[in-house]
Amino acid sequence: MVTFCIIRHGETEPNKRHACLGRTDVPLNQKGREQAFRLFSNLLGVHCDAVYSSPLSRAKDTVSVFLEARKDLTLIEDERLIERDFGEWENMSMPEIEAADQERFALWMEDFVGYTAPGGESSADVQRRVDSLIEELAQRHDGETVMLVTHLGTARHIISKCLGLTLEESWRFTLDNGGFAVIEYDPEKGYGVLKRLDS
């Protein structure tokens, strides 16, 4: 059994217009920095043995305040926590994608899980890397609590994996910027229990 604390990074300027931000490395905005401080106060009572983060600055900066207070912990970057690669649609909002590429946008809406953005990743691609990460960490950190600092799309996949939900069901919930979920995951059963949600 391992406990995962899944954290979504604080707000960025592209988040305000609901852009498919993906791999573009942009900093937190003022609200995002405030969310990082709020997150720090909310996490004070959460036990933690290890912290893994997406290598993008908006994720690392979100947890930096917490790590300043926890000198015993070292941030471990893992590429599998990065956001979905949106390829040619990177940094575009859904209305912008539809206006620029109506035919392929329609295909995406018909198969949200399986369709791959031009030059990017599908939801199934993201799920494969998330699955390998979760299984690896469940073995490495048995009996421990692990923070995973990531992005909305990847967080949805992690939460779905840990709760035994399908890819289609991952679109039934969201995690706000600076929000987090705590899940006790049993790798032998292949699912876990949601213990806390701060969204």
Task: Break the fold down into its secondary structure elements and pairings.
Layout: E1 2-8, H1 13-16, E2 19-20, H2 30-43, E3 50-53, H3 57-69, E4 75-77, E5 92-93, H4 94-100, H5 102-110, H6 123-140, E6 145-150, H7 152-163, E7 180-186, E8 191-198
Helix pairs in contact: 2-3, 4-5, 6-7
GO cellular component, one term: cytosol
InterPro entries: His_Pase_superF_clade-1 (IPR013078), His_PPase_superfam (IPR029033), PG/BPGM_mutase_AS (IPR001345), Phosphoglycerate_Mutase (IPR051695)
Binding site for substrate: 8-15, 58
Defining traits:
two-stranded antiparallel ribbon; single chain; 20% strand; 199 residues; 6-stranded mixed beta sheet; globular; alpha/beta; Rossmann fold
Second rung of CATH, namely the architecture: 3-Layer(aba) Sandwich
CATH fourth-tier homologous superfamily: Phosphoglycerate mutase-like
Helical residues, percent: 25-40%
Strand content: 15-25%
Order of helices and strands: EHEHEHEEHHHEHEE
Global mean pLDDT: 95
Domains (count): 1
Query: Radius of gyration in whole Å, from Cα?
Result: 16 Å
Total count of helical runs of at least 4 residues: 7
What characteristic shape results from the CA principal axes? globular
InterPro entries: His_Pase_superF_clade-1, His_PPase_superfam, PG/BPGM_mutase_AS, Phosphoglycerate_Mutase
Protein name: Histidine phosphatase family protein
Active site: 9, 83
GO cellular component, one term: cytosol
